[in-house]
Design brief:
The protein is of the alpha+beta class. The protein has 13 helices and ten strands. It folds into two domains: about 80 residues; about 240 residues, Aminoglycoside 3'-phosphotransferase, Chain: A, domain 2, CATH 3.90.1200.10. The strands form three sheets. It has a five-stranded antiparallel sheet with strand order 1-2-3-6-5. A three-stranded mixed sheet has the order 4-9-8, covered by helices on one side. Strands 7-10 form a two-stranded antiparallel sheet. Helix 7 packs across helix 10 and helix 8 runs parallel beside helix 10. It starts with 12 loop residues before the first helix and ends with a helix. The model has no long low-confidence stretch (mean pLDDT about 95).
Length: about 375
């Protein structure tokens, strides 16, 4: 049985009809039946549901569907400056920021935002149909990276836009700071068979060297010009579709991290998170790195950007390394705790041994990127 909608407010045809009218762009439709299904995914502070049914328009019966995203504050706090501010996505829609995105990108249409008691908000969104079922090819990752370059490049001169208090800022630094309690990893945790496979002695020593350089890397990135970024653009949050003119477009969902970032930060999750979530084989990690970075630069240049590609390369690599090796090192303690195995398998959708094997390869790849990043920064400085 699917979980019930987590609120006492009754959902009925009177509530759904105006939403469906906006979705179908017809003012005369009336909803007469529907069902709801809980969807997989979501996050620590949100749950997502799909509503679908039929509506009358005169004598015609029209099918419809909507996505309901229920977002609530996980800790009872309401601080817009917080990195994980619960209401950020709703405010992004309310502000109009997501209405007309550049560079062949767009967000799902929002048909209604309903404030609920107890720091909770409901977003009624367009359902997006992914035209590329299954794993993407390397070429498709390149297409996405090209559009992300156009998107980031379009906002590099719009600094006033980034002054909204609810936009995330300093996300990478905060992410790394949150990893501090997990470093160093205890000897007991490192001795666990799965953890020792994930972090063999040579890799663990390389991670500690990266940790020792983190401040230098973060300062350099923080001193770069900022642009608007989605900041969670990996396979699960991306759709490749065609617009009504037959042109390819990229639809980005889940704007809860939207904020400011240096050029290059945007493609760190596209590479590293897509690898960690088993959306692409680690055997293709180097090829993925190459096509994503080259395509992203092409997109940037098409907006008129003429900066130093070495700076973007460093920022991308350092962000990927800090966020997806150092930044997730706390997962070692979860792996060492047998009671957390089911949770990890539910989140990532694969057996833990398979996950650890992939993560081990990804971490080694990221350590190689760290070596390149260190050498590149020395030449830049």
């Amino acid at each position: 049985m699917n979980p019930p909608i987590p609120n006492s407010l009754q959902i009925d045809s009177d509530m759904l009809t105006p939403l469906v009218r906006r979705a179908l762009k017809q003012d005369d439709v009336v909803v007469f039946d529907w069902k709801d299904d809980a969807l997989q995914g979501g996050s620590f502070n949100s749950k997502t549901y799909r509503f679908s049914g039929n509506a009358h328009s005169g004598e015609d019966v029209l099918p419809w569907s909507l996505i309901l995203k229920v977002i609530r504050s996980p800790d009872g706090k309401d601080d817009p400056a917080s990195l994980n501010y619960w209401k950020r996505e709703a405010l992004a829609y309310q502000s109009g920021l997501l209405d007309n995105l550049p560079g062949g990108t767009r967000a799902p249409q929002c048909f209604g935002i309903v404030e609920q008691p107890g720091l909770e908000t409901w977003l009624w969104l367009e359902e997006i149909a992914d035209e590329t079922q299954g794993n993407w090819t390397l070429e498709q990752y390149g297409i996405v990276a090209h559009h992300l370059g156009q998107f980031n490049g379009a906002y590099i001169k719009e600094q006033s836009l980034l002054k909204q208090l609810w936009l995330a800022s300093g996300r990478l630094r905060t992410w790394v700071a949150d990893a501090t309690p997990a470093i160093p990893v205890s000897a007991d945790v490192l001795a666990h068979p799965l953890v020792s496979h994930l972090y063999p002695d040579d890799i663990y020593k390389r991670l500690l060297r990266i940790w020792s350089e983190r401040e230098t890397w973060l300062v350099f990135i923080g001193n770069q010009p900022q642009t608007l970024a989605h900041l969670d653009a990996f396979r699960w949050n991306l759709f490749i579709c065609h617009d009504r003119h037959g042109q390819k477009q990229i639809i980005l969902i889940d704007w809860s991290f939207v904020g400011s970032a240096a050029l290059g930060e945007e493609i760190a999750p596209l590479v590293a998170a897509s690898l960690n979530f088993l959306e692409i084989s680690p055997n293709n990690a180097q090829a993925l790195d190459e096509i994503v970075f080259a395509s992203y630069l092409e997109g940037l240049r098409e907006t008129g950007w003429q900066g130093d590609p070495r700076v973007v390369r460093f920022t991308y690599m350092a962000s990927a390394v800090l966020r997806y090796s150092i930044g997730v090192i706390g997962i070692a303690s979860m792996i060492a705790d047998e009671e957390k195995h089911t949770l990890l398998e539910r989140i990532f959708g694969h057996p833990l041994k398979e996950l650890v094997n992939v993560w081990s390869n990804t971490t080694r790849f990221l350590c190689d990127l760290a070596d390149e990043a260190g050498g590149l920064l020395r030449s830049l400085r």
